[in-house]
Specification:
Blueprint: E1 5-10, H1 21-29, E2 32-35, H2 41-44, E3 52-55, E4 58-59, E5 62-63, H3 67-79, E6 83-88, H4 98-107, E7 111-115, H5 120-127, E8 140-145, E9 166-171, H6 177-186, E10 194-199, E11 207-212, H7 216-223, E12 229-233, H8 251-262
Parallel strand pairs: 1-6, 1-7, 2-3, 2-6, 8-9
Antiparallel strand pairs: 4-5, 9-12, 10-11, 10-12
Helix pairs in contact: 3-4
The structure holds S-adenosyl-L-homocysteine.
Length: 263
């Protein structure tokens, strides 16, 4: 039987041009692609038509497939000798549970490889014209999740994360934005601290809202931003006007352009 192997592959934040060469090579090699909800259609279009696809769609509060089921599926496919690509949005080891899947495979002696991807923090901020660090504005950057495992449990100490020299990138932070902002203000960040939210970053449907801690929640609500969205807080966001280079195109035009570019 062929050697079983699972590739845990990062698909990047959406723009198919941000896939790594290795990811693209593996997509063409795979027998089965098990993909997340966050993987864009434009990227799935790169999977050859004859390759089996399994949607493992997960959403906060609504699990299409439970993590245990996904783990077991990967195991079963590998044991059947299939070359499996487990395709995840962004980077598989950044808030992606890729490491839990890897642990499960390791525990069962299944060979695996991890292919890093461009994480949302890097991709979305670049496409929103926001550098994560900038001399004189931020000398460190921190990635945190706004999602809490247990809604009834204790709130994260947002005040402790308030640091004017650090860029704060919050994944899954939209729903709890008012709580997060209140904590950061309580921790001493000035209310004029620049802040942004980016929806569907790097895709043809990207939308971005730029404001300050004082008005970000209201702006997000007024614009009707929804997940997937990333929140960036810090002085680097003040460059978003000057460095606003990305012109999102309509999704259909964009997908067609990407398709012809890689064909
Ligand atoms: N492993 C992924 C993160 C998964 S957690 C990565 O490395 O990027 C899911 C969260 O990532 C979303 O709720 C959102 O906060 C963020 N995210 C992922 N892709 C995004 C995109 N294209 N635009 C905005 N936010 C995105």
């Amino acid at each position: 039987m062929a050697e079983a192997r699972v590739y845990l592959v990062g698909a990047g934040p959406g723009d198919p041009d941000l896939l790594t060469v290795k990811a693209l090579r593996l997509l063409r090699l795979a027998d089965v692609v098990v993909f997340d909800r966050l993987v864009s259609d434009a990227i799935l279009d790169l999977v050859p038509p004859g390759t089996a696809r399994v949607f493992s769609g997960k959403q906060a509060g609504y699990h299409h497939m439970r993590q245990d089921d996904i783990n077991d599926l990967l195991l079963r496919l590998a044991r059947a000798g299939r070359t499996v690509v487990r395709l995840k949005g962004g980077d598989p080891f950044v808030f992606g549970r890729g490491s839990e899947e890897a642990e499960h495979l390791a525990r069962h002696n299944i060979a695996f490889e991890v292919v890093p991807g461009i994480t949302a923090a890097a991709g979305c901020s670049a496409y929103a014209g926001i550098p994560l660090t900038h001399r004189g504005l931020a000398d460190s950057v921190r990635f945190v999740t706004g999602h809490v495992q247990d809604e009834a449990g204790p709130e994260r100490d947002w005040a402790a994360l308030a640091d004017p020299d650090t860029t704060l990138v919050i994944y899954m932070g939209l729903r709890r934005l008012p709580v997060i902002v209140a904590g950061l203000l309580a921790g001493g960040l000035p209310d004029h601290t620049p802040a942004a939210a980016i929806e569907r970053g790097t895709t043809g449907a990207q939308r971005r809202v730029v404001g300050t801690l004082a008005d970000l929640s209201a702006q997000v609500e007024a614009a009707g931003l929804a997940a997937p969205a990333l929140v960036v807080v810090g002085r680097v966001v003040s460059l978003a006007g000057t460095l606003d280079w990305f012109v999102p195109q309509s999704s259909a035009d964009y997908a067609a352009a990407c398709h012809s570019a890689v064909a």
